[in-house]
């Protein structure tokens, strides 16, 4: 029997009570609102002040960040964002792709559950803020939220800080919804399948099969691994699962790390050095895939296809094939929807 409409029984001055729903809140890293100095500075300041990202004590880190890094990096980084910016939409590729992913996931979830589940996205840094989206969901009647950080491999600097921000947002809600956070999904067969299909699709269009596939993951300080962050191991496992699904022999995929920031040692090998070594060893045709990114962003569009490709060519490399992130590929959307459905179990 359908539930009676609660609002009909309420006193006249009672606040409206929307029908109960489940919220699915996708979360990605975030991106600047624009590439000018102040937009970049605001974004980088929020990002690089996060203790999950840079764990130095504030008294040591903040003077360096505010007085040195944030006077220069907004210009250099802003110039890089300008190169990849979606000027017609006035936003970065990460923003555009996240919007498309959300719309496609919302359509698929809507087909299954109608209005009982609402889907939206938020960013850890910048806009739309996590707290804004949690508030909107609560106001729309969500008394349960599935929070989904779109990082296939867990890292403190990504998954954990996104969750922290979600929990902080929940702290501010009078009607606090029940909450679930979706764990990393690099080992999910549907995700590995989507990744493998993207390799097969690109390879099918190549005249010459690459000598090696480089799986380049965003890096982090090596110290974080030594202190217990399992991200490194998750990346290694992703490469192995991809290789096994492709049916390739051991040694056919190299796992490397990119985007080194600061003076500390980061996870090795560094992609930019490794591709140059490959070219010098005579591996003149390579392909590069970036399985840590659920959407193409500055680190893939500018760094891999810019600096990293240049290092390869400069060292004598000939063919550099970039395999795009899974973005809004049908197999990727279907994998994400499967993961969401598994985490909605018992709630719908
Ligand atoms: C995918 C996983 C990511 C990890 C792990 C990660 C760690 C990490 N990042 C920085 C510093 C920067 N990262 C920047 C951009 C950026 N990083 C990720 C993902 C991970 N970062 C993404 C998806 C993006 C792209 C955002 C976009 O708008 O396209 C930047 C900003 C760009 C720049 O100035 O270079 C910085 C800075 C650190 C220190 C870190 C370590 C734990
Ligand atoms: Fe990063
Ligand atoms: Fe490891």
From TrEMBL:
One cellular component (GO) term of this entry: cytoplasm
Binding annotation for Fe(2+): 218, 299
Gene3D superfamilies: 3.40.50.1400
Keywords: Cytoplasm, Heme biosynthesis, Iron, Lyase, Metal-binding, Porphyrin biosynthesis
Keyword Cell inner membrane applies: no
Biological processes annotated in GO: heme biosynthetic process
Pathway: Porphyrin-containing compound metabolism; protoheme biosynthesis; protoheme from protoporphyrin-IX: step 1/1
Subcellular location field: Cytoplasm
Main location group: cytoplasm
Keyword Iron: yes
Catalytic reaction list: Fe-coproporphyrin III + 2 H(+) = coproporphyrin III + Fe(2+); heme b + 2 H(+) = protoporphyrin IX + Fe(2+)
Single GO MF descriptor: ferrochelatase activity
Family matches, as Pfam families: Ferrochelatase
SUPFAM superfamilies listed in its UniProt record: Chelatase (SSF53800)
Enzyme Commission number: 4.98.1.1
InterPro entries xref list: Ferrochelatase, Ferrochelatase_C, Ferrochelatase_N
Function: Catalyzes the ferrous insertion into protoporphyrin IX.
Family named by the database record: Belongs to the ferrochelatase family.
Protein name in UniProt: Ferrochelatase
Gene expressing this chain: hemH
């Amino acid at each position: 029997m359908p539930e009676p409409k609660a609002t009909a029984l309420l006193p006249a001055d009672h606040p409206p009570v929307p029908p109960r729903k489940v919220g699915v809140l996708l979360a990605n890293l975030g991106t600047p609102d624009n590439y000018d100095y102040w937009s970049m500075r605001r974004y980088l300041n929020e990002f690089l002040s996060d203790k999950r990202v840079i764990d130095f004590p504030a008294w040591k880190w903040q003077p360096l960040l505010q007085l040195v890094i944030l006077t220069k990096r907004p210009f250099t980084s802003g110039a890089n964002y300008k190169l990849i910016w979606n000027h017609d939409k006035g936003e970065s590729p990460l923003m555009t792709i996240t919007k498309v992913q959300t719309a496609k996931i919302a359509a698929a979830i809507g087909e299954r559950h109608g209005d009982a589940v609402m889907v939206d996205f938020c960013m850890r840094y910048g806009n739309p803020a996590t707290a804004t989206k949690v508030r909107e969901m609560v106001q729309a009647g969500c008394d349960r939220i599935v929070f989904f950080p779109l990082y296939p491999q867990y890292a403190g600097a990504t998954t954990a800080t996104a969750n922290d921000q979600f929990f902080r947002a929940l702290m501010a809600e009078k009607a606090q919804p029940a909450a679930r956070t979706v764990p990393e999904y690099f080992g999910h067969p549907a995700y590995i399948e989507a990744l493998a299909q993207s390799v097969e699709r690109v390879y099918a269009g190549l005249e010459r099969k690459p000598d090696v596939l480089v799986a380049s993951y965003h890096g982090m300080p090596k110290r974080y691994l030594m202190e217990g962050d399992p991200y490194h191991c998750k990346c290694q496992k992703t490469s192995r699962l991809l290789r096994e699904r492709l049916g390739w022999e051991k040694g056919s995929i190299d796992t490397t790390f990119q985007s080194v920031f600061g003076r500390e040692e980061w996870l090795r090998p560094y992609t930019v050095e490794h591709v140059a070594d490959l070219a010098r060893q005579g591996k003149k045709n390579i392909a590069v895939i970036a399985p840590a990114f659920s959407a193409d962003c500055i680190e893939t569009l500018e760094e891999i296809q810019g600096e990293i490709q240049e290092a390869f060519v400069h060292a004598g490399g000939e063919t550099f094939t970039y395999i795009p992130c899974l973005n809004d590929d049908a197999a990727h959307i279907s994998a994400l929807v499967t993961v969401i459905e598994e985490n909605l179990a018992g709630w719908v």
